[in-house]
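Here's what a typical entry looks like (Response regulator transcription factor):
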Amino acid sequence: MTVSEVLVIDDHPLFCEALSMTLQSALGVAKVATASRLSEALEMLAGGLSPEAILLDLNLPDVAGLDGLIRLKGAVPGIPVIVVSSMSDNRIVTSVVQAGAAGFVPKDSRRDVFVSAFREIWNGGSYTPDGYCPPAEAETERGPESNAVARLADLTPQQGRILQLVCEGKLNKQIAYELSIAETTVKAHITAILRKLGVQSRTQAVLIAQQARFASILHPPTQ
């Protein structure tokens, strides 16, 4: 399979430049678009950008953890998303795959590893890093984070955005103003969000979102 256009979402310019060069010189990608924030990427996609693959860092200025992947998959469900991150913890890789990523490539991988991984994915396969150990099926089914990811993946892009604002402590009136929609529409979305997540309150919905974020891993506390 030949991929002619790729979107790279990462806020490190030097890494974007190096990755773009690899995509173009080693894989023959004709055009590489870049975005430093998820919001910027979503605007580019809504504006008509049609990449055949997307490379996504988990930790961006406006999103962290699986939030970005889940929202991106909801916005462009037909485009393969490859997570490229410096955080390659076994638990994160598992959740990324469960959330629908086409693969996971550690940022510190050698150039030939990137090339092999992208070729494998673009030919219909998937890629996880060497040394990755998938959890046992029973363990995967029991894990609270796995359950949270599955529920969040069912939200529409708008519902995902509203849930993010709820997590930020915004009231319905504030959410309506920020998204330029009616407050009654916000209430309807929140009712649908609670139903999809299988919870009864906003607080419970926030807890579900927090289970999928891995904030403690992506932003470890300083000693």
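The chain has a mean pLDDT of 83.

More examples are in the samples folder.
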